[in-house]
Amino acid sequence: MNDEADSTNGQSAERQNESAGWFRRLGKSIAGGPRNRGDILEFLGEASNEGLLDVDALPMIEGVLETADLQARDIMIPRAQMVVLEDDWDLDQVLEAVVESGHSRFPVVGHSRDEITGILLAKDLLRFSRSDAPGFEVAQLLRPAVFVPESKRVNVMLQEFRSGRNHMAIVVDEYGGVAGIVTIEDVIEQIVGEIDDEYDEAEGAMILKQDERRFLVQGLTPIEDFNGYFQADFSDEEFDTVGGLVAHHFGHMPRRGESLRIQKFVFNVQRADSRRVHVLQVTLSQDE
Prior knowledge:
The protein has three domains: 2-53; 72-192, CBS-domain (Roll), CATH 3.10.580.10; 202-284, Uridine Diphospho-n-acetylenolpyruvylglucosamine Reductase, domain 3, CATH 3.30.465.10. It has nine helices and twelve strands. The chain has helices at 2-31, 37-49, 57-66, 72-75, 91-101, 154-164, 184-192, 223-230, 242-250; strands at residues 77-78, 85-86, 105-109, 116-121, 147-149, 168-172, 178-183, 207-209, 214-218, 259-262, 265-272, 277-284. Helix 1 packs antiparallel against helix 2 (37-49) and helix 2 packs antiparallel against helix 3. The model has no long low-confidence stretch (mean pLDDT 80).
């Protein structure tokens, strides 16, 4: 028993010495000479390999560092993909759009899509479920909209979201036109990775039908499964997944909102990062 205890204590002491040695090396590197992100990531990678960082911690730290380089235009939902409400809609029209999209916040537009009059929260519609509810007017429910330039740094935007208790910002271009929207979830996903909610793909389905022509397709869907579902004939000799096939046809790693057509299918990127395509909306072309 004493021998086993001595062995265990010896191993524990060895690990402590290794940890202490690693932290001394990190301290010396930071204290002496120029500091840059590459040096920091190198040491953090070494710490992760030695078990000094949790397996999920390193990607999150990298995400935090990357937010300093990202701008609003890099993570925004493009204008063409925005779900907006019109300020003269009646309650039935508003409810239909809210239920179909599953979002919780909606930009409200006036006579043009560049005239954002405010933000409507879905929860503010609950009062109209009562029999004694007052008359419905969109204008009476609007919250002020926050506007940010396309060049706004993501890390600064996160600080402003927190301090201002806002969850959505309207991104405008240099001419004042609406370029897209950014939500606090978009920012947080840059740090912690993809966040699924109850309105995301049901139970991890690889292909989810939205209506007769539109489908949500996971980027990791095998091409063989895609072909079987849609009666398509894409080759899987060079690529295994639909995301890989689409990225190849783009010629670059696409960003959210980018679209292209392959055969009778229009692929719109719903979610993607710098490494792969996560979710695509596939629309069947009507002219085929």
